[in-house]
Specification:
The chain contains 8 helices and 4 strands. 38% of the residues are buried. The strands form 2 sheets. Strands 1-4 form a two-stranded parallel ribbon. A two-stranded antiparallel sheet has the order 2-3. It is found in: Cell membrane. Pfam families: LGT. Its EC number is 2.5.1.145.
């Protein structure tokens, strides 16, 4: 039987003077870099302009960070957002919300698709979202593992043999807890392989919105239940029947169900007419 895991990993890899490199930042960046290599492969296989992945990367980085930052303050610290809005774009950039990141990503991909949704490139909103879902799942695995390296977003106390004792977290140290970050990281990794397998079987015949729907249902359906194993992020959540993460996950799952059902009710259109593919019932 396993003993409790004593987790006292240094979140900092190295530092030179004021400059430091941390595991979280490295894993965050790797999620984007590896993800764009996968997107380049997908673009090649589906005869899309590989050069477009450069602009897609810019849209993804900006929309993810802005969405996650604004989402954190909007959902968890609204007073800070309304009274000190510049906090969103100034160091130390503490606080990122995955629900905000998804909203930002969908917005960024909509803007990207408006430029690329032509008869030549044929990168409609749902086409891009389905493929990006693959790499976002991988990025989610990297980011949640980064949370583990930071000893943050910890779970509730447990006596399970695989419980972690987060020695570097002064607020929750010395008590065995669920490694909730690891649960979510592994869930994202499994989803990555499922979506990659799904796309590899169907490629250009993938029902539009199907992978986006699977992503939303999987990620936020599990997130709803994982929240029961995690400590609340802010004090006001202690007085709520469901915490903020759970409340935000419900509409995300419903949206995923909508995309998934819609994808199988709407046949994949021919190349010449795909430009009409919109998010419409």
């Amino acid at each position: 039987m396993l003993q409790y895991v004593i987790w006292e990993v240094n979140p900092e890899i190295f530092h030179i003077g004021w400059f430091s490199v941390r595991w979280y930042g490295l894993l965050f960046a790797l999620g984007f870099l590896i993800g764009m290599q996968i997107m380049s492969y997908i673009f090649k296989k589906e005869d899309k302009p590989v050069a477009d992945t450069d602009s897609l990367l810019i849209y993804m980085v900006v929309s993810t960070i802005l969405g996650a930052r604004i989402g954190h303050f909007l959902f968890y610290e609204p007073d800070v957002l309304f009274h000190h809005p510049l906090t969103v774009i100034t160091p130390p950039f503490a606080g990122l919300a995955s629900h905000g990141a998804i909203i930002g990503i969908l917005t960024g991909l909509w803007l990207y698709s408006r430029r690329k949704e032509s008869i030549l490139t044929n990168q409609t909103f749902l086409w891009v979202c389905d493929r990006i879902a693959i790499v976002v799942a991988l990025a989610g695995a990297c980011i949640r593992f980064g949370n583990l390296m930071n000893s943050e977003i910890v779970g509730r106390p447990t006596d399970l043999p695989w419980a972690f004792v987060f020695m570097n977290n002064s607020e929750y140290a010395k008590i065995p807890r669920h490694p909730a970050q690891l649960y979510e990281s592994l869930s994202c990794l499994v989803l990555f392989f499922i979506l990659l397998w799904f796309w590899n079987r169907t490629k250009e015949k993938t029902p539009r919105g199907s992978m986006l729907g699977i992503f939303m249902i999987w990620i936020f359906g599990l997130r709803f239940f994982y929240e029961y194993l995690k400590e609340n992020q802010v004090a006001f959540e202690d007085n709520l029947p469901l915490n903020v993460g759970q409340l935000l996950s419900i509409p995300a799952v419903l949206l995923g169900i909508y995309f998934l059902v819609r994808s199988y009710r709407t046949p994949v259109t021919l190349l010449a007419s795909e430009k009409t593919d919109r998010i419409t019932p």
